[in-house]
Design a protein that fits this description.
Nuclear Transport Factor 2, Chain: A, 157 residues, 3 helices, six-stranded mixed sheet, single chain
Length: 157
């Protein structure tokens, strides 16, 4: 069996940490739970809000539940800080529930990576803000955020 490797690899510098964040954003915007889960180690551990996840299979199941609930999901992540094999990000995403209620969810994550570039630990704190559909700021077609779409800082978020 070939070893899994997910570049860029630690230790991170500004360029590689920024790329790692954008690749994570792109993956999550795909809403492909299997693809996204493959970026995490087999024994990854997460805390997402008050939910604790113990491995890649649980992460994939979590993501499937998430995107079945959070419809028309669009995410922007921004590098906050990094050192060695750790990255801190802030992010916001917009979504609606099955009743058509829109939300902007704000969060911070702390990530730790193995030498293979797979994420071994993820700690997320998230708050949901109800918004009106007219107040949405993330209006690109579903999928990857276009390169020319403003990031969080440019949007004043």
């Amino acid at each position: 069996m070939q070893a899994e490797v997910r570049p860029p690899l630690p230790p991170f510098n500004t360029e590689t940490a920024t790329l790692k964040v954008r690749l994570a954003e792109d993956g999550w915007n795909s809403r492909d739970a299997q693809k996204v889960a493959s970026a995490y180690s087999v024994d990854t551990t997460w805390r997402n809000r008050a939910e604790f996840i113990q491995n890649r299979a649980e992460a994939q199941a979590f993501l499937e539940r998430k995107w079945n609930k959070e419809l028309d999901y669009r995410l922007i992540k921004e590098l906050w800080a990094f050192a060695d094999n750790r990255i801190a990000v802030r992010y916001a995403y917009e979504w609606h529930d099955d009743a058509g209620n829109w939300f902007r969810s704000y969060g911070n994550e702390n990530w730790e990576f193995g030498a293979d570039g797979l994420m071994t630990r993820r700690f997320a704190c998230i708050n949901d803000l109800p918004i009106k559909e007219a107040d949405r700021k993330f209006r690109w077609p579903l999928g990857r955020r276009p390169d020319d779409h403003p990031g969080l800082s440019a949007l004043g978020l």
